[in-house]
Write a structure and sequence with these properties.
It is a single chain. The protein has 96 residues and is mostly helical. It folds into 2 domains: 34 residues; 54 residues. It contains 2 helices and no strands.
Length: 96
């Protein structure tokens, strides 16, 4: 079997494009600072990343809910203190 110049050039081009594709992948990693830029880069790592993002979002929502509840409780406490003061004043007026 004879190896022609066309076969050699096709092999060289294929190898060159594969190498360029690999370089592109690593340049993207270096530029973005991310190991995973597309889901196809690492499917199992992508699943882990999505789970972590979900957990992070849930934790943020929990934190927001806790902040809202704390604010509501503080307002309720202030209202109860005011009601106690009013009741004390009513008792004072009733005794007179």
């Amino acid at each position: 079997m004879r190896i022609t110049n066309k076969v050699l050039s096709n092999n060289m081009l294929r190898n060159m494009f594969q190498t360029m594709g690999g370089m592109d992948k690593y340049q993207n990693m270096a530029t973005t600072g991310r190991k995973i830029n597309r889901p196809s880069d690492n499917p199992s790592g992508n699943i882990t990343t999505l789970r972590m993002r979900t957990k992070l979002a849930q934790n943020e929502q929990f934190k927001d809910n806790a902040t809202t509840a704390k604010s509501w409780l503080e307002k309720s406490e202030d209202s109860l203190i005011s009601m106690g003061d009013i009741m004390q004043r009513v008792r004072e007026l009733a005794v007179k």
